[in-house]
Structure to design on (328 residues):
């Protein structure tokens, strides 16, 4: 038997991971790395191989080739599996059970002690917003309540790494905010979260690292700020812009657009390298005697990056993409 995985190993590492179904290779040399305590967004169009990857990381599907380590070991090792949580996208629950019975049953499947289950079930019900509803049968739950119950079962055994596949697809806006808070709390507790979601605004709010995947390969991955960061623009609105001040602004970066409204207020869009240039730009403009009304950094939305990288809906994509080198 291998030794228990150390907690200082990454949560997930894959190298050249591949999976074929028949002649179709759906995961094609995937390299990802997820650190401990990271919230990692795994993004890609339909059919990109995301669920297949998650199933390999959970030990539910065997890779055709390549390497993967989860919490420092193999997901086929029971000691590793016991430390994983999973909320599948398409869950099928024992709907004849009450919420309480369902969680007790899953606690038993996870090998928790009875005393632990008794203490833990009310805690997770409370955490997912189902306090007081555990006595009702699942077939009387709404879709959102079922998704909350699924999240509760994923968190029941205090996992170190949780896989959440579209965890808010059935939830209303309040439910989505609550799940976002749960994910943030998990990160604060040092739990790693692997999030599959098509809701890019949600991913942008909660994830600190992301990978974009298409046709089974990583197109780009990294810290969210790096992935988004290359293209910082600032919108500047002012009056009394002198030619000298405009020249000085140009030393920071190109003036991409310049418009003047009928009242004489000028709006500039300036390309900057770094966020810490913003106060310098403000100082310079105020020093030139301009009245500064607005200086707003504008980053591209995650959706813009997704469209730029992934280009089109996955299932509609006719051919293999031209890839930049993926990194482990
Ligand atoms: N058991 C299977 N047998 C054959 N093909 C499969 C199997 N599971 C998945 N596939 C195929 O593998 C490809 C990737 O599917 P996968 O479910 O991993 O994509 P996904 O990125 O999770 O998509 P979605 O965002 O739509 O959930 C698809 O073309 C799918 O049809």
């Amino acid at each position: 038997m291998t030794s228990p995985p150390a907690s200082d190993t990454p949560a997930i590492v894959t190298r050249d991971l591949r999976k074929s179904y028949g002649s179709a290779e759906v995961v094609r040399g995937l390299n990802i790395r997820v650190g401990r305590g990271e919230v990692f967004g795994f993004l890609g169009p339909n059919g990109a191989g995301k669920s297949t990857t998650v199933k390999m990381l959970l030990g539910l599907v065997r890779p055709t080739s390549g390497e993967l380590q989860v919490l420092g070991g193999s997901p086929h090792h029971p000691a590793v599996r016991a430390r994983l949580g999973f909320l599948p996208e398409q869950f099928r629950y024992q709907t004849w059970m009450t919420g309480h019975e369902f969680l007790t049953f899953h606690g038993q499947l996870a090998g928790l002690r009875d005393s632990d289950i008794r203490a833990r079930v009310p805690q997770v019900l409370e955490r997912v917003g189902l306090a007081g509803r555990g006595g009702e049968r699942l077939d009387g739950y709404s879709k959102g309540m079922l998704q909350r119950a699924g999240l509760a079962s994923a968190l029941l055994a205090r996992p170190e790494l949780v896989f959440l596949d579209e965890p808010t697809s059935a939830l209303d806006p309040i439910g989505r905010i609550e799940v976002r808070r749960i994910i943030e709390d998990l990160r604060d507790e040092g739990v790693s979260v692997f999030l599959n979601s098509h809701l890019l605004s949600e991913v942008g709010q909660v994830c600190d690292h992301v990978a974009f995947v298409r046709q089974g390969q990583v197109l780009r991955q990294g810290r969210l700020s790096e992935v988004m960061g290359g293209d910082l623009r600032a919108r500047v609105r002012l009056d009394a812009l002198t030619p000298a001040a405009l020249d000085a602004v140009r030393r920071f970066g190109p003036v991409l657009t310049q418009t003047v409204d009928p009242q004489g207020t000028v709006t500039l869009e300036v390309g900057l390298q770094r966020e810490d240039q913003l106060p310098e730009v403000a100082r310079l403009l105020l020093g030139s005697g301009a009245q500064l009304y607005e200086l707003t950094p504008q980053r591209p939305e995650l959706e813009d990056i997704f469209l730029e990288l992934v280009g089109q809906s996955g299932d509609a994509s006719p051919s293999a993409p031209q890839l930049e080198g993926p990194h482990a």
Notes: Residues 173-188 form the longest helix (16 residues).
